[in-house]
Protein backbone atom coordinates (compact mmCIF):
# COMPACT_ATOMS: atom_id res chain seq x y z
CA UNK A 1 0.00 0.00 0.00
CA UNK A 2 2.82 2.40 0.91
CA UNK A 3 4.62 1.64 -2.37
CA UNK A 4 1.39 2.22 -4.26
CA UNK A 5 0.91 5.60 -2.57
CA UNK A 6 4.46 6.62 -3.47
CA UNK A 7 3.87 5.57 -7.10
CA UNK A 8 0.71 7.67 -7.22
CA UNK A 9 2.40 10.74 -5.75
CA UNK A 10 5.37 10.50 -8.11
CA UNK A 11 3.11 10.04 -11.15
CA UNK A 12 1.05 13.06 -10.06
CA UNK A 13 4.18 15.16 -9.54
CA UNK A 14 5.69 14.28 -12.93
CA UNK A 15 2.40 14.71 -14.81
CA UNK A 16 1.68 18.02 -13.06
CA UNK A 17 5.12 19.54 -13.69
CA UNK A 18 4.93 18.57 -17.38
CA UNK A 19 1.39 19.93 -17.53
CA UNK A 20 2.67 23.23 -16.16
CA UNK A 21 5.37 23.79 -18.80
CA UNK A 22 3.36 24.05 -22.03
CA UNK A 23 0.62 26.44 -20.82
CA UNK A 24 3.30 28.50 -19.09
CA UNK A 25 5.12 28.85 -22.40
CA UNK A 26 1.90 29.52 -24.32
CA UNK A 27 0.64 32.28 -22.03
CA UNK A 28 4.14 33.78 -21.86
CA UNK A 29 4.26 33.84 -25.67
CA UNK A 30 1.03 35.85 -25.78
CA UNK A 31 2.74 38.59 -23.77
CA UNK A 32 5.97 38.33 -25.81
CA UNK A 33 4.30 38.55 -29.24
CA UNK A 34 4.67 42.34 -29.64
CA UNK A 35 8.38 42.07 -28.74
CA UNK A 36 8.83 39.24 -31.28
CA UNK A 37 6.96 41.32 -33.84
CA UNK A 38 9.25 44.27 -33.12
CA UNK A 39 12.38 42.17 -33.69
CA UNK A 40 11.24 40.25 -36.77
CA UNK A 41 8.54 42.58 -38.24
CA UNK A 42 6.10 39.72 -38.83
CA UNK A 43 2.71 41.48 -39.03
CA UNK A 44 -0.35 40.43 -37.02
CA UNK A 45 -1.41 37.49 -39.25
CA UNK A 46 2.06 35.91 -39.55
CA UNK A 47 2.58 36.60 -35.84
CA UNK A 48 -0.37 34.35 -35.01
CA UNK A 49 1.60 31.43 -36.47
CA UNK A 50 3.99 31.60 -33.50
CA UNK A 51 1.04 30.08 -31.61
CA UNK A 52 -0.64 28.18 -34.45
CA UNK A 53 2.43 26.27 -35.73
CA UNK A 54 2.89 24.67 -32.31
CA UNK A 55 -0.79 23.76 -32.03
CA UNK A 56 -0.87 22.28 -35.53
CA UNK A 57 2.14 20.02 -34.94
CA UNK A 58 0.69 18.82 -31.63
CA UNK A 59 -2.72 18.08 -33.15
CA UNK A 60 -1.25 16.06 -36.03
CA UNK A 61 0.75 13.71 -33.79
CA UNK A 62 -1.34 13.42 -30.61
CA UNK A 63 -3.59 10.45 -31.38
CA UNK A 64 -0.85 8.36 -33.10
CA UNK A 65 1.50 8.84 -30.15
CA UNK A 66 -1.31 8.01 -27.69
CA UNK A 67 -1.73 4.69 -29.48
CA UNK A 68 2.04 4.09 -29.66
CA UNK A 69 2.20 4.68 -25.89
CA UNK A 70 -0.55 2.10 -25.27
CA UNK A 71 1.40 -0.48 -27.29
CA UNK A 72 5.03 0.24 -26.37
CA UNK A 73 4.85 1.98 -23.00
CA UNK A 74 3.49 5.28 -21.70
CA UNK A 75 6.50 6.18 -19.57
CA UNK A 76 8.85 5.65 -22.50
CA UNK A 77 6.90 7.91 -24.87
CA UNK A 78 6.38 10.49 -22.12
CA UNK A 79 10.16 10.66 -21.58
CA UNK A 80 10.97 10.93 -25.30
CA UNK A 81 8.37 13.66 -25.65
CA UNK A 82 9.79 15.70 -22.79
CA UNK A 83 13.28 15.44 -24.31
CA UNK A 84 11.98 16.52 -27.75
CA UNK A 85 10.10 19.49 -26.29
CA UNK A 86 13.15 20.58 -24.29
CA UNK A 87 15.41 20.40 -27.36
CA UNK A 88 12.88 22.46 -29.33
CA UNK A 89 12.88 25.10 -26.57
CA UNK A 90 16.69 25.25 -26.61
CA UNK A 91 16.71 25.72 -30.39
CA UNK A 92 14.14 28.54 -30.05
CA UNK A 93 16.51 30.43 -27.76
CA UNK A 94 18.92 30.82 -30.68
CA UNK A 95 16.41 31.25 -33.57
CA UNK A 96 17.90 33.95 -35.85
CA UNK A 97 14.72 34.74 -37.81
CA UNK A 98 10.95 34.25 -37.83
CA UNK A 99 11.01 31.20 -40.12
CA UNK A 100 13.36 29.23 -37.88
CA UNK A 101 11.44 30.31 -34.80
CA UNK A 102 8.32 28.75 -36.31
CA UNK A 103 10.33 25.59 -37.10
CA UNK A 104 11.35 25.26 -33.45
CA UNK A 105 7.71 25.67 -32.44
CA UNK A 106 6.89 22.66 -34.65
CA UNK A 107 9.55 20.61 -32.81
CA UNK A 108 8.00 21.67 -29.50
CA UNK A 109 4.58 20.66 -30.79
CA UNK A 110 5.87 17.20 -31.69
CA UNK A 111 7.30 16.74 -28.20
CA UNK A 112 4.12 18.01 -26.56
CA UNK A 113 2.05 15.51 -28.55
CA UNK A 114 4.04 12.68 -26.96
CA UNK A 115 3.59 14.17 -23.48
CA UNK A 116 -0.12 15.04 -23.81
CA UNK A 117 -0.94 11.58 -25.13
CA UNK A 118 0.58 9.89 -22.07
CA UNK A 119 0.54 12.18 -19.01
CA UNK A 120 -3.15 11.85 -18.15
CA UNK A 121 -3.11 8.16 -19.17
CA UNK A 122 -0.34 7.48 -16.63
CA UNK A 123 -2.36 9.25 -13.92
CA UNK A 124 -5.49 7.27 -14.71
CA UNK A 125 -3.44 4.05 -14.72
CA UNK A 126 -2.24 4.51 -11.12
CA UNK A 127 -5.26 6.21 -9.49
CA UNK A 128 -8.43 4.21 -8.68
CA UNK A 129 -11.82 5.39 -9.93
CA UNK A 130 -12.86 7.12 -6.70
CA UNK A 131 -9.67 9.25 -6.63
CA UNK A 132 -9.45 10.19 -10.32
CA UNK A 133 -11.34 13.45 -10.06
CA UNK A 134 -9.04 14.62 -7.27
CA UNK A 135 -5.88 13.66 -9.22
CA UNK A 136 -7.15 15.21 -12.44
CA UNK A 137 -8.18 18.34 -10.55
CA UNK A 138 -4.63 18.79 -9.20
CA UNK A 139 -3.17 18.09 -12.64
CA UNK A 140 -5.49 20.61 -14.31
CA UNK A 141 -4.68 23.11 -11.55
CA UNK A 142 -1.00 22.84 -12.55
CA UNK A 143 -2.05 23.71 -16.10
CA UNK A 144 -3.80 26.81 -14.81
CA UNK A 145 -0.86 27.64 -12.56
CA UNK A 146 1.27 27.67 -15.72
CA UNK A 147 -1.30 29.89 -17.39
CA UNK A 148 -1.33 32.13 -14.31
CA UNK A 149 2.41 32.58 -13.98
CA UNK A 150 2.97 32.82 -17.75
CA UNK A 151 1.71 36.38 -18.28
CA UNK A 152 3.43 37.72 -15.14
CA UNK A 153 6.78 35.95 -15.48
CA UNK A 154 6.61 36.17 -19.27
CA UNK A 155 6.13 39.92 -19.02
CA UNK A 156 9.00 40.17 -16.54
CA UNK A 157 11.32 38.01 -18.68
CA UNK A 158 10.42 39.88 -21.88
CA UNK A 159 10.83 43.32 -20.33
CA UNK A 160 14.10 42.70 -18.48
CA UNK A 161 15.77 39.73 -20.23
CA UNK A 162 14.19 39.58 -23.69
CA UNK A 163 11.62 37.15 -25.09
CA UNK A 164 14.20 34.39 -25.68
CA UNK A 165 14.63 33.98 -21.92
CA UNK A 166 11.11 32.51 -21.78
CA UNK A 167 12.25 29.55 -23.86
CA UNK A 168 15.34 29.19 -21.67
CA UNK A 169 13.08 28.90 -18.60
CA UNK A 170 11.19 26.01 -20.22
CA UNK A 171 14.50 24.29 -20.98
CA UNK A 172 15.28 24.29 -17.24
CA UNK A 173 11.81 22.96 -16.38
CA UNK A 174 12.09 20.28 -19.08
CA UNK A 175 15.39 19.06 -17.64
CA UNK A 176 13.77 18.81 -14.18
CA UNK A 177 10.97 16.62 -15.59
CA UNK A 178 13.48 14.39 -17.40
CA UNK A 179 15.43 13.88 -14.16
CA UNK A 180 12.22 13.08 -12.24
CA UNK A 181 11.09 10.52 -14.83
CA UNK A 182 14.47 8.77 -14.95
CA UNK A 183 15.04 8.72 -11.19
CA UNK A 184 11.60 8.55 -9.57
CA UNK A 185 8.91 7.27 -11.97
CA UNK A 186 9.03 3.49 -11.62
CA UNK A 187 7.27 0.95 -13.80
CA UNK A 188 5.86 1.02 -17.31
CA UNK A 189 2.25 1.00 -18.48
CA UNK A 190 1.66 -1.13 -21.58
CA UNK A 191 -2.04 -2.05 -21.71
CA UNK A 192 -2.13 -2.93 -25.43
CA UNK A 193 1.20 -4.80 -25.70
CA UNK A 194 1.52 -6.98 -28.79
CA UNK A 195 -1.16 -5.19 -30.80
CA UNK A 196 -0.23 -3.77 -34.20
CA UNK A 197 0.27 -0.07 -34.82
CA UNK A 198 -1.88 1.30 -37.63
CA UNK A 199 0.78 3.23 -39.56
CA UNK A 200 -1.42 3.85 -42.61
CA UNK A 201 -4.27 5.15 -40.43
CA UNK A 202 -1.83 7.43 -38.59
CA UNK A 203 -0.63 8.91 -41.89
CA UNK A 204 -4.22 9.43 -43.07
CA UNK A 205 -5.03 11.08 -39.73
CA UNK A 206 -2.04 13.43 -39.85
CA UNK A 207 -2.68 14.53 -43.43
CA UNK A 208 -6.39 15.00 -42.71
CA UNK A 209 -5.80 17.18 -39.62
CA UNK A 210 -3.12 19.19 -41.45
CA UNK A 211 -5.42 19.84 -44.42
CA UNK A 212 -8.36 20.85 -42.22
CA UNK A 213 -6.45 23.17 -39.90
CA UNK A 214 -4.10 24.75 -42.43
CA UNK A 215 -6.94 25.08 -44.93
CA UNK A 216 -9.07 26.89 -42.38
CA UNK A 217 -6.26 29.35 -41.71
CA UNK A 218 -6.10 30.15 -45.47
CA UNK A 219 -9.85 30.77 -45.95
CA UNK A 220 -11.27 32.75 -47.78
CA UNK A 221 -8.68 32.08 -50.51
CA UNK A 222 -9.53 29.38 -53.12
CA UNK A 223 -6.53 27.36 -51.87
CA UNK A 224 -7.98 27.43 -48.36
CA UNK A 225 -11.36 26.11 -49.50
CA UNK A 226 -9.62 23.43 -51.58
CA UNK A 227 -7.64 22.25 -48.55
CA UNK A 228 -10.79 22.25 -46.40
CA UNK A 229 -12.61 20.09 -48.96
CA UNK A 230 -9.62 17.72 -49.09
CA UNK A 231 -9.56 17.56 -45.28
CA UNK A 232 -13.28 16.70 -45.06
CA UNK A 233 -12.85 14.00 -47.71
CA UNK A 234 -9.82 12.72 -45.79
CA UNK A 235 -11.85 12.60 -42.56
CA UNK A 236 -14.54 10.45 -44.22
CA UNK A 237 -11.89 8.12 -45.66
CA UNK A 238 -10.12 7.92 -42.29
CA UNK A 239 -13.35 6.89 -40.54
CA UNK A 240 -14.01 4.26 -43.24
CA UNK A 241 -10.46 2.90 -42.86
CA UNK A 242 -10.50 2.78 -39.05
CA UNK A 243 -13.77 0.84 -38.97
CA UNK A 244 -12.19 -1.89 -41.10
CA UNK A 245 -8.60 -2.22 -39.89
CA UNK A 246 -7.87 -4.91 -37.26
CA UNK A 247 -5.93 -2.68 -34.84
CA UNK A 248 -6.97 0.95 -35.50
CA UNK A 249 -4.99 3.95 -34.33
CA UNK A 250 -8.34 5.45 -33.25
CA UNK A 251 -11.06 3.05 -32.06
CA UNK A 252 -14.13 4.58 -33.70
CA UNK A 253 -16.49 2.44 -31.62
CA UNK A 254 -15.56 4.68 -28.69
CA UNK A 255 -17.60 7.36 -30.45
CA UNK A 256 -20.31 5.22 -32.05
CA UNK A 257 -21.71 3.55 -28.92
CA UNK A 258 -20.59 5.73 -26.04
CA UNK A 259 -22.52 8.98 -25.71
CA UNK A 260 -20.67 10.09 -22.59
CA UNK A 261 -17.32 9.78 -24.37
CA UNK A 262 -18.53 11.39 -27.61
CA UNK A 263 -20.30 14.41 -26.15
CA UNK A 264 -17.64 15.01 -23.49
CA UNK A 265 -15.06 15.31 -26.27
CA UNK A 266 -17.38 17.50 -28.33
CA UNK A 267 -17.92 19.77 -25.31
CA UNK A 268 -14.14 20.07 -24.89
CA UNK A 269 -13.70 20.90 -28.58
CA UNK A 270 -16.33 23.65 -28.43
CA UNK A 271 -15.10 25.03 -25.11
CA UNK A 272 -11.51 25.51 -26.27
CA UNK A 273 -12.73 26.86 -29.62
CA UNK A 274 -14.66 29.55 -27.76
CA UNK A 275 -12.06 30.55 -25.17
CA UNK A 276 -8.46 29.88 -26.24
CA UNK A 277 -7.87 32.95 -28.43
CA UNK A 278 -9.12 35.30 -25.69
CA UNK A 279 -5.61 35.56 -24.21
CA UNK A 280 -4.04 36.20 -27.62
CA UNK A 281 -6.58 38.93 -28.44
CA UNK A 282 -6.44 40.65 -25.06
CA UNK A 283 -2.64 40.65 -24.98
CA UNK A 284 -2.57 42.59 -28.25
CA UNK A 285 -5.47 44.81 -27.11
CA UNK A 286 -3.84 45.72 -23.78
CA UNK A 287 -0.41 46.47 -25.26
CA UNK A 288 -1.41 48.12 -28.53
CA UNK A 289 -4.76 49.85 -27.83
CA UNK A 290 -4.49 50.50 -24.08
CA UNK A 291 -0.73 51.11 -24.20
CA UNK A 292 0.22 48.91 -21.25
CA UNK A 293 3.70 47.42 -20.94
CA UNK A 294 4.35 43.68 -20.85
CA UNK A 295 4.38 43.48 -17.05
CA UNK A 296 1.10 45.36 -16.52
CA UNK A 297 -0.64 43.45 -19.31
CA UNK A 298 0.51 40.21 -17.70
CA UNK A 299 -0.83 41.24 -14.30
CA UNK A 300 -4.28 41.88 -15.81
CA UNK A 301 -4.34 38.64 -17.84
CA UNK A 302 -3.30 36.58 -14.80
CA UNK A 303 -6.81 36.96 -13.33
CA UNK A 304 -8.40 34.29 -15.54
CA UNK A 305 -5.97 31.39 -15.04
CA UNK A 306 -5.53 32.24 -11.35
CA UNK A 307 -9.26 31.74 -10.77
CA UNK A 308 -9.09 28.56 -12.86
CA UNK A 309 -6.25 27.21 -10.71
CA UNK A 310 -8.22 27.82 -7.51
CA UNK A 311 -11.49 26.19 -8.61
CA UNK A 312 -10.22 23.34 -10.80
CA UNK A 313 -9.24 20.98 -7.92
CA UNK A 314 -12.58 21.71 -6.20
CA UNK A 315 -14.48 20.92 -9.40
CA UNK A 316 -12.44 17.73 -9.89
CA UNK A 317 -13.29 16.43 -6.41
CA UNK A 318 -16.92 17.46 -6.92
CA UNK A 319 -17.09 15.42 -10.14
CA UNK A 320 -16.24 12.27 -8.13
CA UNK A 321 -19.54 12.73 -6.29
CA UNK A 322 -21.81 14.70 -8.64
CA UNK A 323 -22.55 14.04 -12.31
CA UNK A 324 -19.68 15.66 -14.29
CA UNK A 325 -22.10 16.96 -16.92
CA UNK A 326 -23.84 19.17 -14.35
CA UNK A 327 -20.63 20.73 -13.03
CA UNK A 328 -19.11 21.12 -16.52
CA UNK A 329 -22.31 22.58 -18.02
CA UNK A 330 -22.50 25.17 -15.24
CA UNK A 331 -18.92 26.08 -16.04
CA UNK A 332 -19.75 26.55 -19.71
CA UNK A 333 -22.56 28.90 -18.68
CA UNK A 334 -20.15 31.16 -16.78
CA UNK A 335 -17.71 31.05 -19.73
CA UNK A 336 -20.53 32.15 -22.05
CA UNK A 337 -21.29 35.10 -19.76
CA UNK A 338 -17.63 36.19 -19.67
CA UNK A 339 -17.16 36.02 -23.44
CA UNK A 340 -20.45 37.85 -24.06
CA UNK A 341 -19.32 40.70 -21.82
CA UNK A 342 -16.10 41.04 -23.86
CA UNK A 343 -18.14 41.95 -26.97
CA UNK A 344 -18.51 45.45 -25.45
CA UNK A 345 -14.74 46.02 -25.49
CA UNK A 346 -13.77 49.50 -26.69
CA UNK A 347 -10.78 51.85 -26.67
CA UNK A 348 -11.93 53.24 -23.30
CA UNK A 349 -12.85 50.01 -21.50
CA UNK A 350 -11.74 50.14 -17.85
CA UNK A 351 -9.33 47.56 -16.42
CA UNK A 352 -11.95 46.71 -13.75
CA UNK A 353 -14.47 45.67 -16.41
CA UNK A 354 -11.87 43.58 -18.21
CA UNK A 355 -10.83 41.87 -14.97
CA UNK A 356 -14.50 41.06 -14.19
CA UNK A 357 -14.82 39.37 -17.60
CA UNK A 358 -11.62 37.38 -17.02
CA UNK A 359 -12.74 36.26 -13.55
CA UNK A 360 -16.02 34.97 -15.00
CA UNK A 361 -14.14 33.12 -17.74
CA UNK A 362 -11.70 31.65 -15.25
CA UNK A 363 -14.46 30.46 -12.92
CA UNK A 364 -16.33 28.90 -15.83
CA UNK A 365 -13.33 27.10 -17.22
CA UNK A 366 -12.25 25.95 -13.75
CA UNK A 367 -15.65 24.28 -13.29
CA UNK A 368 -15.59 22.74 -16.77
CA UNK A 369 -12.18 21.24 -17.44
CA UNK A 370 -11.40 18.57 -14.82
CA UNK A 371 -14.99 17.20 -14.57
CA UNK A 372 -15.07 16.93 -18.36
CA UNK A 373 -11.72 15.11 -18.45
CA UNK A 374 -12.93 12.82 -15.66
CA UNK A 375 -16.01 12.01 -17.75
CA UNK A 376 -13.90 11.15 -20.81
CA UNK A 377 -11.39 8.91 -19.03
CA UNK A 378 -14.02 7.15 -16.88
CA UNK A 379 -15.94 6.14 -20.01
CA UNK A 380 -13.25 3.84 -21.48
CA UNK A 381 -11.38 0.70 -20.50
CA UNK A 382 -7.68 0.56 -19.57
CA UNK A 383 -6.36 -0.50 -22.98
CA UNK A 384 -7.75 2.74 -24.44
CA UNK A 385 -6.39 5.15 -21.81
CA UNK A 386 -3.58 6.38 -24.06
CA UNK A 387 -5.90 6.84 -27.03
CA UNK A 388 -8.56 8.53 -24.86
CA UNK A 389 -5.94 10.82 -23.36
CA UNK A 390 -4.73 11.60 -26.87
CA UNK A 391 -8.27 12.26 -28.09
CA UNK A 392 -9.20 14.66 -25.27
CA UNK A 393 -5.90 16.49 -25.83
CA UNK A 394 -6.58 16.51 -29.58
CA UNK A 395 -10.00 18.05 -28.94
CA UNK A 396 -8.26 20.72 -26.89
CA UNK A 397 -5.68 21.42 -29.57
CA UNK A 398 -8.17 21.32 -32.45
CA UNK A 399 -10.34 23.73 -30.46
CA UNK A 400 -7.35 25.98 -29.85
CA UNK A 401 -6.44 25.77 -33.54
CA UNK A 402 -10.01 26.62 -34.56
CA UNK A 403 -10.07 29.51 -32.07
CA UNK A 404 -6.83 30.93 -33.49
CA UNK A 405 -8.07 30.20 -37.01
CA UNK A 406 -11.21 32.29 -36.44
CA UNK A 407 -9.15 35.20 -35.15
CA UNK A 408 -6.52 34.87 -37.91
CA UNK A 409 -9.24 34.79 -40.57
CA UNK A 410 -11.00 37.86 -39.13
CA UNK A 411 -7.71 39.76 -38.76
CA UNK A 412 -6.72 38.91 -42.35
CA UNK A 413 -10.09 40.21 -43.65
CA UNK A 414 -10.02 43.45 -41.62
CA UNK A 415 -6.28 44.17 -41.37
CA UNK A 416 -4.55 42.08 -44.03
CA UNK A 417 -0.83 41.85 -43.29
CA UNK A 418 -0.70 45.20 -41.49
CA UNK A 419 0.80 45.65 -38.05
CA UNK A 420 -1.54 47.05 -35.40
CA UNK A 421 -1.16 50.85 -35.23
CA UNK A 422 -3.30 53.80 -34.02
CA UNK A 423 -4.45 54.44 -37.61
CA UNK A 424 -6.21 51.06 -37.76
CA UNK A 425 -7.39 50.75 -34.14
CA UNK A 426 -11.08 51.01 -35.24
CA UNK A 427 -10.65 48.05 -37.63
CA UNK A 428 -8.72 46.13 -34.98
CA UNK A 429 -11.51 46.68 -32.41
CA UNK A 430 -14.18 45.71 -34.94
CA UNK A 431 -12.36 42.43 -35.63
CA UNK A 432 -12.11 41.78 -31.88
CA UNK A 433 -15.85 42.30 -31.37
CA UNK A 434 -16.75 39.95 -34.23
CA UNK A 435 -14.43 37.30 -32.75
CA UNK A 436 -16.13 37.50 -29.36
CA UNK A 437 -19.62 37.31 -30.92
CA UNK A 438 -18.63 34.05 -32.64
CA UNK A 439 -17.10 32.72 -29.41
CA UNK A 440 -20.24 33.56 -27.40
CA UNK A 441 -22.39 31.55 -29.85
CA UNK A 442 -19.97 28.64 -29.56
CA UNK A 443 -20.26 28.71 -25.76
CA UNK A 444 -24.03 28.27 -25.99
CA UNK A 445 -23.51 25.26 -28.28
CA UNK A 446 -21.00 23.91 -25.77
CA UNK A 447 -23.59 23.99 -22.99
CA UNK A 448 -25.91 21.87 -25.14
CA UNK A 449 -23.16 19.34 -25.91
CA UNK A 450 -22.19 19.11 -22.24
CA UNK A 451 -25.76 18.44 -21.13
CA UNK A 452 -26.33 15.87 -23.90
CA UNK A 453 -23.62 13.46 -22.72
CA UNK A 454 -25.88 11.62 -20.25
CA UNK A 455 -24.79 10.04 -16.98
CA UNK A 456 -21.20 8.99 -16.37
CA UNK A 457 -21.71 7.68 -12.81
CA UNK A 458 -24.09 4.74 -12.53
CA UNK A 459 -26.17 4.45 -9.40
CA UNK A 460 -23.87 1.77 -8.05
CA UNK A 461 -20.92 4.07 -8.66
CA UNK A 462 -19.50 2.30 -11.68
CA UNK A 463 -18.48 4.25 -14.78
CA UNK A 464 -20.23 3.93 -18.09
CA UNK A 465 -18.24 1.40 -20.07
CA UNK A 466 -16.95 1.62 -23.57
CA UNK A 467 -17.74 -1.02 -26.18
CA UNK A 468 -15.95 -4.25 -25.57
CA UNK A 469 -15.66 -3.86 -21.78
Helix and strand topology:
Blueprint (H helix, E strand, L loop, with lengths): L1 H39 L3 H4 L1 H24 L1 H20 L4 H29 L2 H32 L3 H20 L15 H20 L3 H21 L10 H4 L2 H17 L1 H13 L4 H8 L1 H16 L5 H19 L8 H27 L7 H30 L10 H27 L18
Helix pairs in contact: 1-5, 1-6, 1-7, 1-12, 3-4, 3-5, 3-8, 3-17, 4-5, 4-7, 5-17, 6-13, 6-14, 6-16, 8-9, 8-17, 11-15, 11-16, 11-17, 11-18, 12-13, 12-18, 14-16, 15-16, 15-18, 17-18
CATH fold-type name of the largest domain: Growth Hormone, Chain: A
Q: What is Rg?
A: 21 Å
Q: Describe the biggest sheet? A: none
In helices, the fraction of residues equals: over 70%
Give me the secondary-structure category.
Answer: mainly alpha
Instruction: Provide the CATH superfamily of the largest domain.
Output: MFS general substrate transporter like domains
Beta-strand proportion: under 5%
Q: In terms of quaternary structure, what is this? A: single chain
Distance between the first and last residues' Cα: 27 Å
Give the total of beta strands: 0
Mean pLDDT: 82
SSE ordering: HHHHHHHHHHHHHHHHHH
Number of helices: 18
CATH architecture of the largest domain: Up-down Bundle
Low-confidence stretches: 458-469
**Would you state the CATH class of the largest domain?**
Mainly Alpha
Number of domains: 2
Report the principal-axis shape.
Answer: globular
Written description of the protein model:
This protein is an all-alpha fold. The chain has two domains: 2-197 and 247-451, Growth Hormone, Chain: A (Up-down Bundle), CATH 1.20.1250; 198-246. Helix content is 79%, strand content 0%. The protein is built from 18 helices and no strands. It has helices at 2-40, 44-47, 49-72, 74-93, 98-126, 129-160, 164-183, 199-218, 222-242, 253-256, 259-275, 277-289, 294-301, 303-318, 324-342, 351-377, 385-414, 425-451. The protein is globular. It starts with a helix and ends in an 18-residue tail after the last helix. The model is unreliable at 458-469 (pLDDT under 50).
Amino acid sequence: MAANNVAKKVALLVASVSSFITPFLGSSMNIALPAIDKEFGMGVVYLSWVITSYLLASAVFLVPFGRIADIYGRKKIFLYGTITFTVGSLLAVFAPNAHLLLATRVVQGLGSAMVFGTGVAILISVYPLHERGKALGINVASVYLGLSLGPTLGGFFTHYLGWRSIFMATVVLGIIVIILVLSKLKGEWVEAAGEKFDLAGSLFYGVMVLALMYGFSKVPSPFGFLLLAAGIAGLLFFIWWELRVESPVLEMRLFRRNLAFTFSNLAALINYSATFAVGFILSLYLQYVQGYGEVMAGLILICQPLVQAVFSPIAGRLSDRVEPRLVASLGMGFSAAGVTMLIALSQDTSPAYLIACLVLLGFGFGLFSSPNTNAVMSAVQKKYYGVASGIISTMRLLGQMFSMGVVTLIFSVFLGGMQVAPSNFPLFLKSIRLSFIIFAVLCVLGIAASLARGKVHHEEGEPQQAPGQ
